[in-house]
Amino acid sequence: MTDINLTAVLFEQNDLRMEDCPIPSPGPGQVLLEMKEVGICGSDVHYWTHGRIGDFVLNAPMVLGHEASAVVSKLGEGVTSLKIGDRVAIEPGVPCRKCNYCKIGRYNLCLDMKFCATPPYDGNLARFYVHDADFCFKLPDHVSFEEGALLEPLSVAVHATNRAGVKLGNTVLVCGAGPIGLVNILTAKAKGAAFVCVTDLDASRLDMAKKLGADFTVQVTSRDPLVTVQAIEEALGDKADIAIECSGAAPSLKTAIYATKSGGVVVLVGLGQEMVEMPVVNAGVREVDIRGIFRYVNCYPTALAMIASGKVNVKPLVTHRFKLEESIKAFEAAKRGEGIKIMISCERKKL
Amino acid sequence: MAVKNLSAVLHAKLDLRLENRDVPAIGEEDVLIRMGPVGICGSDIKYWTHGYCSGVFVLRAPMVLGHEGAGTVVQTGSKVGNLKVGDRVAIEPGVPCLRCRICREGRYNLCPRMQFCATPPVHGNLTRLFKHPAAFCHRLPESVDLEHGALVEPLAVAIHACNRGGVKAGSLVLVCGAGPVGLLCMWVAKCAGALGVVVTDIDDQRLAFAKEKGADYVINVRGVEEPIAAQQIISAAGCSPDVTIECSGSDYSMTLGIHATHPGGSVVQVGRGTQIPSIPLTLAATKEVDIKGVFRYANCYPTAISLISSGQLPGLKSLISHHFPLAETEMAFKTALSRDAGAIKIIIECDQ
């Protein structure tokens, strides 16, 4: 097969193939990007294994990948914010910019959002990709391409902690120590949280959580949320000011609510069942607010500043590396639940 | 020969001319509007009398005036989805870039690449036919006429000011200056649930009008030192205001607001006084009275239209004191300037 623009295309559920595609051309306001690093997200894996996520259904072949960094290779008409050779992180969702959601600063809720690797829009797991220039963020020289790709999940944590109102001195409960739980630990600490307690089923995940800054870890061993709640309260000395639920598991949601102080906030990051049993009266009468998040908004600059300043170190999150040609192997490893963040390097290696 | 598009063009200070300009060609995201009523603003007057405004905006080339406008859509660009021909719209005059950080954060009024009607060098809408991006033309419901549509712009200023000040149910609000902007702030504060509004001015006629239109207390502060005037306000109202909205353009009122406002409250500066005024900043700081500037508005047009259409501003049109056809724009401006005419809001009808 030729390799002009080797691309990872999901044809339908369980049918992921490497295809060669033409190199796209940047339109006005866009740039052509030579892709460098693309991380795999749970959603990419889910589209592959299920063909849909909720109402987003794969109806036509779609390129996967949305956690990415690249080098600017060509400028579309009118682009002045970037130049050829600039190293950038790509914010994957381009909104319409002119609807009311966009105008009030909540463009993540734009109904015409074009998001990489959410059907029907292609992602960027390829050699080359075109994107709107104003959603590409120039990386300082000392920030690596892998770190650039990690700005995407880190932005999820910036948005979650923003919505939670994490501030100086808070105690924060993070439920779930997968990659998203881990970036939330890093971000909560970067925002001055005093103590972070992390729960998970898996002891080795909790070890990583500890390494990345968790003050306390609680391994979930009982189906009864109240058992976990007691362990959390023993560790923290009290309920938490804020809980960030990153597992999507119904018992964990119950734990998060019961373990949060009255007047606190529980942020739902993890996505599980559409309908769950939830102690809504307990939350209500204690004014524990429950707030969802959808991706992130105006978070890339903050995430970049956190990494560029050295306040946050995301490098330990990358545990597996593959080349673009090996994408299917990479996805298989992801499907098996191996490691934390799997990174795919898209640069065509010179012979 | 080009279709006539009569427009009120300011060539230089005090040199306002009625001219035929070309009918603008619309882009795929624009609409062409047959202009109806356009209100005159203090800034239009300032450009006419001085050739500049707010210290930083300077007229350097001929510019069509007017930015408080409404009209009817007569043509739509190929990508326009929110409007159709025949829709009546209130025109939000400021078009930001929508791509910079401040736009994306929702405060597009502060966009450094803002293109604002009748702020040099961008042409305004005192014209027969006007082109504008559809995303900044707000459809008026059936119950809201074009004249109300023209009042949406200054109403948006008042909404933004009240938002910045944090006016809410139970607030006591002090409005300094009983001109159109002050009156609008008074009404918006009441819509937001303010328990009362005190209005100050140095003109008894304006104060009488404010009282008639809903002010709970009016005080003439001509010649009264600020701390004493503050006391008069607090005595009249029975407590100190939570929010002061300064709409007079006087440094005096900024100082008055700082003295009168309750600790923890806000003074919102809508009016423009001197560039570097002498005000009791230390007093404001020790009372934690926040001083908040206002620059136009962002995301206020939908609120303005919904306040009008829900009947919460029944007296809105009483602001309108004079009408002139487009050809008499200069007379309209002279009337606005003349204190004797007792003008509040002057409307120029661009389809007459």
UniProtKB/TrEMBL annotation, chain A:
<dbReference type="InterPro" id="IPR013154">
    <property type="entry name" value="ADH-like_N"/>
</dbReference>
<dbReference type="InterPro" id="IPR036291">
    <property type="entry name" value="NAD(P)-bd_dom_sf"/>
</dbReference>
<dbReference type="InterPro" id="IPR045306">
    <property type="entry name" value="SDH-like"/>
</dbReference>
<feature type="domain" description="Enoyl reductase (ER)">
    <location>
        <begin position="12"/>
        <end position="344"/>
    </location>
</feature>
<keyword id="KW-0862">Zinc</keyword>
<keyword id="KW-0560">Oxidoreductase</keyword>
<dbReference type="GO" id="GO:0046872">
    <property type="term" value="F:metal ion binding"/>
</dbReference>
<keyword id="KW-0479">Metal-binding</keyword>
<dbReference type="GO" id="GO:0006062">
    <property type="term" value="P:sorbitol catabolic process"/>
</dbReference>
<dbReference type="InterPro" id="IPR020843">
    <property type="entry name" value="ER"/>
</dbReference>
<dbReference type="InterPro" id="IPR011032">
    <property type="entry name" value="GroES-like_sf"/>
</dbReference>
<keyword id="KW-0520">NAD</keyword>
<dbReference type="Pfam" id="PF08240">
    <property type="entry name" value="ADH_N"/>
</dbReference>
<comment type="similarity">
    <text>Belongs to the zinc-containing alcohol dehydrogenase family.</text>
</comment>
<dbReference type="Pfam" id="PF00107">
    <property type="entry name" value="ADH_zinc_N"/>
</dbReference>
<protein>
    <recommendedName>
        <fullName>Sorbitol dehydrogenase</fullName>
    </recommendedName>
</protein>
<dbReference type="GO" id="GO:0003939">
    <property type="term" value="F:L-iditol 2-dehydrogenase (NAD+) activity"/>
</dbReference>
<dbReference type="InterPro" id="IPR013149">
    <property type="entry name" value="ADH-like_C"/>
</dbReference>
Automatic annotation (TrEMBL), chain B:
<keyword id="KW-0479">Metal-binding</keyword>
<dbReference type="GO" id="GO:0008270">
    <property type="term" value="F:zinc ion binding"/>
</dbReference>
<dbReference type="InterPro" id="IPR013149">
    <property type="entry name" value="ADH-like_C"/>
</dbReference>
<dbReference type="InterPro" id="IPR002328">
    <property type="entry name" value="ADH_Zn_CS"/>
</dbReference>
<keyword id="KW-0862">Zinc</keyword>
<dbReference type="GO" id="GO:0006062">
    <property type="term" value="P:sorbitol catabolic process"/>
</dbReference>
<dbReference type="Pfam" id="PF00107">
    <property type="entry name" value="ADH_zinc_N"/>
</dbReference>
<dbReference type="InterPro" id="IPR011032">
    <property type="entry name" value="GroES-like_sf"/>
</dbReference>
<dbReference type="InterPro" id="IPR020843">
    <property type="entry name" value="ER"/>
</dbReference>
<feature type="domain" description="Enoyl reductase (ER)">
    <location>
        <begin position="13"/>
        <end position="348"/>
    </location>
</feature>
<comment type="similarity">
    <text>Belongs to the zinc-containing alcohol dehydrogenase family.</text>
</comment>
<keyword id="KW-0520">NAD</keyword>
<dbReference type="Pfam" id="PF08240">
    <property type="entry name" value="ADH_N"/>
</dbReference>
<keyword id="KW-0560">Oxidoreductase</keyword>
<dbReference type="GO" id="GO:0003939">
    <property type="term" value="F:L-iditol 2-dehydrogenase (NAD+) activity"/>
</dbReference>
<dbReference type="InterPro" id="IPR036291">
    <property type="entry name" value="NAD(P)-bd_dom_sf"/>
</dbReference>
<protein>
    <recommendedName>
        <fullName>Sorbitol dehydrogenase</fullName>
    </recommendedName>
</protein>
<dbReference type="InterPro" id="IPR045306">
    <property type="entry name" value="SDH-like"/>
</dbReference>
<dbReference type="InterPro" id="IPR013154">
    <property type="entry name" value="ADH-like_N"/>
</dbReference>
